[in-house]
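Task 17 of the worksheet. Students: predict the tertiary structure of the chain below and write it out as structure tokens. Keep your answer in the requested format; marks are given for formatting as well as content.
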Amino acid sequence: MSGATSALPPFDAVEPFETHERSVLKRRWWERALVAIDIGAKHGTGIRLADLLALLPEEAPSTEEDLARWIADALPEAAVFDGTVFPGSPPPEVRSGEAERADRAERWIRAAEELVSRGLGPAGSLVRCVAVTGSAAYGQVWPEDDLDLLVVTSPGTLWSFLLLAFLDLRLRARRVGGERIRWCLNYAVDLPRARAEYRRSRGFQFAREALTARVVYGAPEYTSLLKEGSWMAGEMPRLYGRRRCAGAGEAAPARPTPLWARLLDPIVFVVLGSYLQAVGLVRNRRLRRAGETSKVFATTTRRSMMAYESQEFRELGELYNAQPDHGEAFGFDDL
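Model answer:
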């Protein structure tokens, strides 16, 4: 979309007495919103007007109607269908499947709520909060997607939890609406590490993942983590302000760490952590042989953290932090 970033919206114009730093910041916010539209196209979806509004600064259009009018004027190559922005005319299968993907996302989130409330057994006593992230949190799930989970555990119990959770998910085949869910505990940390991670400025991509996460257990605890990350207000002020006030109530008081979990945790870390690293190497070898290099992932295993990060996710982070070049990216050419 050549020249898209030069057609600036009214809120991006330099106001009287406005500092140069302020005008640059406002431009950066809008450019990142354009990148979010591009990224939706790369995943075969659009981005809902309501979600796009949440990514913009306070000076941006404040209603879906105003934003749709601005897009029609400033981004003539974009298209708005049923409240969703697409970077150009989307293929018929993308438009026709929008409602189906949204319904699948809601079914998967309900499955995650059920998993936490009834399916974790003894592992549940170690959990402080659980949230759905990724495509399900964004509300657009393709059948081949994973259901990504963010889990925060009590201090010193992360690997005891992971052992019990992995066994539970392996032993129980969980299906929703005839579809088998591929559960992925892709980001699990204990509470002290979570506070440190959220407190440290991590950039736009981390902020968007954190602020769009759908909490299925421990909302007050998760809200307390967001309050630790006040830097996110500089990335997405609207969404941060809304989420910071969600999850009313105080976080649950710290529970004593069960003795069995404290004793088991360091042993499980060595055994299960080594196993996950080995499994990652085997799977990555298969992915490379199949030519699916974007799905190759890095496995992080530490005493207080276990995380998967795909090559595709890292590339998306680079897109968020780069100046958008819509001459190539703004469209559905790769579908």
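Marker's comment: The chain has a mean pLDDT of 81. The longest helix spans residues 259-289.
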